[in-house]
Amino acid sequence: MSRLVVVSNRLADPRKTASGGLAVALGQALQASGGLWFGWSGKVVEDGTPGEGDVHLQTAGPVQLATVDLSREDHDSYYLGYSNGVLWPVFHYRLDLADFDAGFIGGYRRVNQMFAHKLAALLRPDDVIWVHDYHLIPLAAELRNMGCQQRMGFFLHIPLPPPLILAAVPEHEWLMRSLFAYDLVGFQSEADVAHFSRYVGTETSADILGEHEFRAFGKTLQVQAFPIGIDVDEFTALGRGQEAIDMYEQMRDEYSRRRLLLGVERMDYSKGLPQRIKAFRQLLQNYPENLGSATLIQIAAPSRESVDAYAALRQELESLCGSVNGDFGELDWMPVRYIHRSVARKRLPGLYRAASVALVTPLRDGMNLVAKEFIAAQDPEDPGVLVLSRFAGAAEQMRDALLVNPYDTTRTAETMQRALQMPLEERQRRHRALLQQIREQDVHWWRQRFLNALNAV
Ligand code: ADP
Ligand code: F6P
């Protein structure tokens, strides 16, 4: 059997807590199949030489980890600069936040070339290579330049925007052309596939051979949607663990006279945090029966803090939470509990279960795994309600959630109220349908479907 080689910028020790959909999902997928996981070590060498970095080899269960350090210059131009200062905002439709500094592209190319060199030295001829996310779009093209002929697939964890937004990236043609070095490209949703197809149709002279097949630059490429899932069984088992139970009981006792609404994510402008706090304010204003009772627990884990837009978001969020608490709080009730830290993964299911309502309201999101984890953690007899943004990839699958437009503050507040008031029978029915959906299309289904498609190319 061929060995699976996974390449991603961010790695996680599969046995430890990770905040970020990619690390969580890949950790679980690789635990199942074994293989090699290659990427950045997470270490920045202050006086390191750009384009160079030591490789560290480690074993974690059935997975061999190979990680590379980045010099300060590479980290700042490839990771902070091009990946998170250009591609991330543009792919999340935020042209206003993109910093098209011409210097960043040099670092992005250099690190992709360096990764290709280091990885090529570890490859076997019959390896199957699966590259992940926007940090590494040109990796296959670099590997092909070096003569690597292995099967190569690419999966984009974030959305692909419509052609006219993508075209704002000065290097868009080069990026999209680089995708044709892969044999298979996967996106999270049908909307992303449609954007790819429209881009290829309008911006290139490619032939569209079929719904999923494109020919350009002398290469045929398969493109398909593979919505990522979670490991439902693993997450349910985590919920039966002592740490999750302790968490649940602690929350239940502390908030026995309250109704909990919960938000959990990285502190990221794509997640719609200010809009959510504004909608929660309207909930308190428009439905005063919630005063003294409804409590929003907002966990926002630190992320990419040296990118300006993230620092600005933190300030805005802190000020919004402070003003809701100042305007509505009582000596014995604070409407918003805002925590700028991550929660240990083992405790997370207990927190989800204690909540009556989950607020997963990104302005744009590739998929959003928190929505799926929330459903997996619920008590089927007395489940909480999922309020989900129609702009999350998950909304294509999770039709039984209460779907909202997070830009529409008044209706989002109305939907929060509807969620808090929802009769038990309706909650159970919606939860049953959602649970079945996330079970059918879980992380194993995602991995298997992608790899089957890659092997079939
Ligand atoms: P993204 O990939 O943009 O971070 P996802 O919702 O797809 O968003 O994935 C986030 C993953 O990271 C989930 O598995 C979630 O449980 C975890 N996570 C996110 N924020 C936190 C947090 N504050 N504390 C603990 N885990 C978190
Ligand atoms: O899932 C999207 C994603 O950007 C991953 O690629 C990334 O690992 C995760 O979010 C967390 O972001 P970061 O790796 O920048 O901390």
TrEMBL record:
Judging by the UniProt lineage, the source's domain of life is Bacteria
Record family assignment: Belongs to the glycosyltransferase 20 family.
Record's catalysed reaction(s): D-glucose 6-phosphate + UDP-alpha-D-glucose = alpha,alpha-trehalose 6-phosphate + UDP + H(+)
Signal sequence bounds = none
Q: In which pathway does it act?
A: Glycan biosynthesis; trehalose biosynthesis
Family annotation (PANTHER family): BCDNA.GH08860, TREHALOSE-6-PHOSPHATE SYNTHASE
Official protein name in the record: Trehalose-6-phosphate synthase
**Entry EC number(s):** 2.4.1.15
What does the entry give for GO biological process? trehalose biosynthetic process
Top-level EC class, please? transferase
Does Glycosyltransferase count among this protein's keywords?
Answer: yes
Output one GO MF annotation: alpha,alpha-trehalose-phosphate synthase (UDP-forming) activity
Q: Which UniProt keywords apply?
A: Glycosyltransferase, Transferase
Q: What is the recorded function of this protein according to its Swiss-Prot or TrEMBL entry?
A: Probably involved in the osmoprotection via the biosynthesis of trehalose. Catalyzes the transfer of glucose from UDP-alpha-D-glucose (UDP-Glc) to D-glucose 6-phosphate (Glc-6-P) to form trehalose-6-phosphate. Acts with retention of the anomeric configuration of the UDP-sugar donor.
Q: Does the keyword NAD apply?
A: no
Any matching Pfam family? Glyco_transf_20
- How does the annotation summarize its subunit structure? Homotetramer.
* NCBIfam families, A to Z: trehalose_OtsA
